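Quick start: read one record
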Amino acid sequence: MNKNPSLHLDGASRVVFIVGDPIAQVKSPAGVSQAFQNAGLNALCIPAHVAPADLAAWTAGVSLCKNVDGIIVTVPHKFAYFDVCATTSDRGAFLKSINTLRRNADGSWHGDMFDGLGYVQALGRKGCSLQGKKALLVGAGGAGSAIAYALATGGLRELAIHDADTLRRDTLVLSLAALGRCTVVVGSSDPTGHDIAINATPLGMQEGDPMPIDADKFTPSLFVGCVVTAPAVPPLIAAARAAGCNTLTGADMFAQVKDLMVAFLKGQ
């Protein structure tokens, strides 16, 4: 039974999947579906819980469905989908990471990555300017690398990157430094000396997770962000607010990313 009488569903409905492992934490299917239908599209976003070992087979099967127009990608599949795409944006090609796919005319997949662009837009809406600032980013995975790219090309003076996977961290630091847009260095979990500190890891989703950034070092002048969407106020954000910091939640970020993804899936 459709609990939302304004949400249309019939045999002509187009389908966009959102795929991840896990997937139960995502809040986007309803919002993306409503955005499609508000735009006059008979389309729905459906969650799919797919383990990495099954991803290739699942994608091959979904690609045979003639009413599947797109795939939205969440943890941990964003790097894997780069190889699925026949074509990508320049941003996706640089990052080798994808969070949204749509069909090319021949039925193959075209991909792009909106996590970083959406995050920077969300920062701006919260009054946080990047110009001349120093930022610490923790996490160099799919979302983290996209946010790092957007930060490094968005006007920062210096970007420090911290990740427990030192190879992944160092690879991202070197590639962003080569762009020559700002100074890019290896960081730590200590936010001291930075204007902005962002957690781009899943830490905070599970009870008992360690703090990804040293909250004991928070000062009111620090702007703190986190990509975690569930819980709505993860421990890092709660600690930042207790310290008097301005903050950006995962939901704040995804509101901007969602609009970018919907426009892309509409062919814009």
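Residues 130 and 156 are 5 Å apart (CA to CA).
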